[in-house]
Amino acid sequence: MKRRRITQRAFLNVRTSIAVLLCAAAVCWVLSATVLAFFRPEASSKVFQRTLSFSERVAYQRAIEDVYWRHRIWPKDNPDSKPSLDAVISQAQLEKKVEDYLLKSQTLEDHW
């Protein structure tokens, strides 16, 4: 009985040691990757930046509005069916929204 307890403790110590070693290796790996990335800023600064045209921005805004509209829950007590997005928001409203975003972005950029 006593020998069995010693064997169980030794087994748990081996398992604990292996778990600690694996965790330490994972931490070292994460830290080394972070340190390497810190000393290589040119890799992170090579981000592809593309200027979107106004029509592209309007098209993307419409896609965003479409996702919002599809996920909006239509009230059960409303007897009418849910209208299409085109019936709810016009092209002019989309363009106005994009213009407002661009104006606000430019204002923030000028301020900061």
Task: Give the total of domains.
Answer: 2
- Rg, alpha carbons: 29 Å
Output the helix-strand order. Answer: HHHHH
The unreliable regions are: none
Count the beta strands: 0
Report the biggest beta sheet as strand number plus sense, adding barrel if it closes: none
Fraction of helical residues: over 70%
- The helix/strand class is mainly alpha
N- and C-termini, Cα separation: 74 Å
Bulk shape: flat
Percent of residues in beta strands = under 5%
Mean pLDDT: 80
List the helices and strands and how they pair.
Elements lengths: L1 H37 L2 H5 L8 H18 L13 H4 L2 H21 L1
Helix pairs in contact: 3-5
Describe the protein's architecture and organization.
There is one protein chain. This protein has 112 residues and is mainly α. It has two domains: 2-45; 54-111, no CATH class. It contains five helices and no strands. It has helices at residues 2-38, 41-45, 54-71, 85-88, 91-111. Helix 3 (54-71) crosses helix 5. The termini are far apart. The model has no long low-confidence stretch (mean pLDDT 80).
Short description:
This protein is mainly α and 112 residues long. Helices cover 76% and strands 0% of the residues.
Index terms:
112 residues, mainly alpha, 5 helices
